[in-house]
Amino acid sequence: MINRIIILLAGLAVATPVFAQTADPASPPAAAQKQAQMIRAAVLRVDRPGLLPISRLDLPPQDLGFAGARLAIDDNATTGRFMGQEFEALEVAATPETAEGEMEKLLAQGIPFVVVLADDAMTLRLTDLAKDRAIVLNAGARGDDLRGKDCRFNVLHAAPSHAMLADGLAQFLMWKKWPRWFLVKGSHPEDENLAEAYRRAARKFGAEIVEERTFEDTGGARRTDSGHVQVQQQMPVFTQRAPDYDVMITADEAGIFAAYMPYQTWDARLVAGSAGLVPRSWHPAFEAWGGVQFQNRFEKLANRSMRDEDYQTWLALRMIGEAATRAQTADPDKLKEFMLSDRFEVAGFKGQKLTMRDWDHQLRQPILLATGALVASVSPQDQYLHQSSALDTLGIDRPETECKF
User: Fold this and answer.
1) Which one-letter DSSP state was computed for residue 148?
2) Where is the signal peptide (predicted)?
3) For the chain: N or C, fewer Cβ within 10 A?
């Protein structure tokens, strides 16, 4: 199903998307009196069938990602009206079987920017399908290979990578002087990719992984087959006899076991990674740097809290809007060129400007470290310095990259 969002840019004059001031409706800006320029985009969300989340609180809303897109279109209208620009974002929900067909439809319509919410493999397939017909903005996939050996010139990554998330958590754990990690990973390929990011982070920041174990996914409905009684018996047995460690790091991208780990380990230890203290791109309790106003606007629009997918989709579309405003053009080719240039930056309510890495097209951004109820810290931590940007202490730096465009 496709919903069309169009915001006409006339009437108000504002300084930022957060604080709006009403202009005299009798005297619209000169640019608004001209023929409006349309900047078209689409959000393609690929819903992968699978088991329900462990917690019913994590059930995905029907407008996941799309709500973030609607807020971004509203914000793009606010910041772009001096240029007489209109912004449009089509919303397309697909399955793995229909995703490539839906992408072809968007490309046939001449949509120059496609925001993709999908897993690593599907994101790569859709990117290769688009080739030079569109810029793909990755708002979902976190795999480091997409920024490394499988990188593509026509994709920009608004979603943080596994390496960025792992490094953000590692910096905090090392600041806390908790260097001994017990790594527990799932049995799915995406779990191994995340586990490798934590191994790399341990080497990078001087932590020691005292042991690794794999939690095998044996199937089952989890929420009905693995009630609290079974979990209370199973998890302590699984985690016993581990060498002395400070923190258990869970690498559970598939969402099979990590949520069960807090308070169920054999030893009295903290849990981090995919549960416990979790590195995230966004958190609904975040309040700093205009976060309260930002989240209030989202909650008014969507009647729910913002999730990572909403934030990353919002950020991807805001990248387009910011490029249009700064480059003073609606031409897709010029917008692509500007977003890939060192002149590009975008505000993300994280306390500093977000910029693009030219070596792998990853958007630099701070990482929030959050529990279920609040944000405990924000990385990069102050003591980790870098010759060009502290944000480049998170993720794959230029000398380490395997990306070759």
Assistant:
1) T
2) 1-20
3) N
Give 154-184 pLDDT, tens digit per residue. 999 999 999 999 999 999 999 999 999 999 9
Tokens for 13, please give them: 């004059």
Give the separation between CA 173 and CA 297, rounded to whole angstroms: 33
Rounded-to-integer distance, Cα 195 and Cα 179, Å = 16
> Strand 270-273 relative to strand 247-251: parallel, antiparallel, unpaired?
parallel
**Within this chain, domains 2-160+283-365 and 163-280 share the same CATH topology:** yes
**Residue 191 CB partners (closer than 8 Å, separation 6+):** 185, 251, 252, 253, 254
Per-residue model confidence as pLDDT tens digits over 21-42: 334 444 445 444 567 789 999 9
- Whole-angstrom Cα Rg for the chain: 22
- Give 147's DSSP letter: G
Question: pLDDT tens digit string along 292-301?
Answer: 999 999 999 9
Query: What span, in angstroms and rounded, lies between the C-alpha atoms of 92 and 77?
Result: 21
Q: Top-level CATH class of 2-160+283-365?
A: alpha beta
pLDDT surpassing 90 at residue 232: no
Q: Please give the Cα distance from 46 to 141 (Å, whole number).
A: 11
Burial of 34 (0-12, 13-18, 19+ CB in 10 A): exposed
**Lowest-confidence segment of 57-71, 151-165, 211-225, 246-260 by average pLDDT:** 211-225
Question: 163-280, which class in CATH?
Answer: alpha beta
Question: Domain coordinates of the chain in residue numbers?
Answer: 2-160+283-365, 163-280
Closest CA relative to residue 300, chosen from 67, 91, 46 = 67
Within a 10 A sphere around the Cβ of 374, how many other Cβ atoms? 11
**Residue (of 321, 347, 346) closest to 335 by Cα position:** 321
